[in-house]
Amino acid sequence: MMIPPTEDRRWTVARQMGVRFAIAKLAPELTGKAPPWDYDALASEVKRYQAGGFKIIGLEGDQFDMSRIKLGLPGRDEDIARYCDMLANMGRLGIGLLCFNFMAYFGWFRTRTGLAGRGGALVSDFDAERAEALGLTEIGTISQDAIWDNYKYFIRRVAPAAEKAGVRMALHPDDPPVPSLRGVGRIFTSVAALERGLDVVDSSALGITFCQGTLQTAGEDVVAAAHRLGRDRIAFVHIRDVRGTAERFTETFPDEGEIDMPAAFAAYRDLGLTCPIRPDHAPAMDGDYVATDRVDGINVGYEANGMIFTVGYMKGLLQAYGWRDV
Q1: Which of these, 19, 132, 204, 226, could form a disulfide with 267 (CB 3.0-4.6 Å)?
Q2: What is the per-residue DSSP string for 213-231?
Q3: Strands (E), 266-325
Q4: What pLDDT does residue 293 have?
Q5: What is the C-alpha to C-alpha distance for residues 207 and 233, in angstroms, rounded to an integer?
């Protein structure tokens, strides 16, 4: 599970569900410490999670401000050097996975986050028209070509460091997978684009985060995409479901969206995947919020009760297809 550095109810619920392994985001705004390029800061978090019953097996997301790297700004070489230090620290501490993205300025983006889903659960959605109506940001228009050049500059410098550290870098597709978001180009919006990203370097350290929901909204057949990428390139799997297209979609529970979940898990079995897999963007359920204050303070997608449903759903499918130690 994605377990936050703040020890809260999600830690308790994860332990009760039998979750033993954590994916973490340890950015300074979340930990109050230096970013993971600082060995002592990262080691202290590893120790703290261990005390709580979890082994950190991966980091996910931007662990510090990546703007200069993704936008090609002065200072990016200094930030890339720090990124390489982070990879070295991860290797020393036995953290073998880094889920990363190259979404510039925006990370994963939604236009609404408090939409009523099944039974009043809270879900998020995306509408390209609503997004574009917000207009350009202060950075103006940035082309796909510029983002692509910045990605190549970055990955050619960090992939060797990942190999040396024994860390697998898993590239996450752009979410939403639209060609441009408020004027900022997006480049990883299909399986073909992800393959192109991997082919920049010849490195066993580089793989894909197989995010089911993002690939589904990109118009990909999730089962066919898994077989196309294969065991060697899928380094991490995100389990979530959606209804809609890249231009307009809504998040759902994993049993009510458009992905054939049993077929997807059968594909993972047939491929012989042994990589980490986690629940992602689960609807917030009753108990995660109060009716009089439905959205404020709620991190729709990462609250405890929705994860209970999704983890149970995942365990059932995993056990049905032969994985026993889940």
Answers
A1: 226
A2: HHHHHTT--HHHHHHHH-T
A3: 277-279
A4: 66
A5: 5
